[in-house]
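Hey, resending since the last one bounced:
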Amino acid sequence: MREGKLFVLVIGTTDVSLVPGITLAGATPELTHFTPAADAEYLLTGETRSLRGVPITPSGLPTPALISRASLSLLKLPTLIANAGSRIAPRIPYVELGGSHGRDIRRGAMETGTMEILLKRGKELGSSLSSVEEIIIGESIPGGTTTAMATLLGLGYDALGKVSSTAPNNPMELKEKLVLDAVKTAPKAIESRIAWLADPVLIAVAGISIGFLGRKVLAGGTQMLAAAALIKNFAGTLEKVEVRTTKWVVEDHTADFQGLATQVGVKTSYASLNLSKSRFPGLRAYEEGYVKEGVGAGALSLEAMSAHGEETLLKAIDREYERLLH
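The C-alpha cells again:
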C-alpha cells in the first residue's frame, strides 16, 4: 500500500521574463533567469550558488522559497528538484527532464518535438515516484503567469486579464498585449499551439502529474490552473488533481483564480497564512500583495499549519529570514 508524501520542485525559464515590467521575480529582468536555479539551491541547502543571496524583487522582498523552506523544516518531506528547461542549471543534485528554456511566446516557446520529449519524460518521472501516496508539485519560473494566460487562452478558456502577478499593481495591459500577439501567431493544431504558447514548467508539471498514480497537489496559483488545463487536455481527466495556493492569490482583485478554476474544473484550496505578525517588513509586505506565491509556498504552508499550527510556522519563517540576514 502506498503511503507518504513527496515534494517536487519543477524549475524552468522563459524569455517572457526578460520583457521589462512583466515580473518582479528577480532584481532585474536579466536576473530572472537565475531565480529558478537559486530557488532550488536555497530550498535544498539553505544557500544559493548560482546567485549571490536569495532571489529578491527589485525592492528587496524575499523569494517565497523562504516560506517553503521553513515549512519543509517542520514537515521533513523528501524533496526532489526537476529541471524542465532552466537557462541556468542549479548547482545541486537534480533530475534532468531534457527540455529547453522557453523562448518568447510571440515567436514560439518551443518545438513540438521538445514538448513531446518533456511530456514523455515527465510521465516517466511521475510513474517512478508512484510508491508514495501523494505528490506535491511546486514551480519556479519567472514570467510564468503570462505564459499561463497564453496557454489557457490557447486552449479555449476565457483567461484574458485573469492571472495573478508578483506585483500589487498587476501589469495586465502589458501581459494582455504580449499574450494576444502570441495567440495571433500561434498554429491552429492543438499540440503545436500548446508548444508555441506554454513554457517548459507547465509541460513538465502536466507530464509528472499524468504519470503519477496517487494524489496530485499542484502547488501554485494561476500558473497551476494552466497546468491542470494541460493535464485535462492530454489525459482527459482531472481525477486525483487539486490546486493549492495562498490566500494572497485567491484574494488578488486584479486576477480571477476561482473563476479560472471553475472553468478548468479543478478542485482548489488555499493556505490562510498571515504574515502581518512577522518581525520583518520584507515578510509583512506579502500582506500588501507582493510576491503572493511560488516554489510551492501555499501548499507547503498549508501542510505545515495543519500539522504544527500557524504560530509555529510563523516562528519558523521568521527564524529562517533572520538566518538569511546574518
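The domain at 5-325 is CATH 3.40.50.10210 (Rossmann fold).

Sorry for the duplicate.
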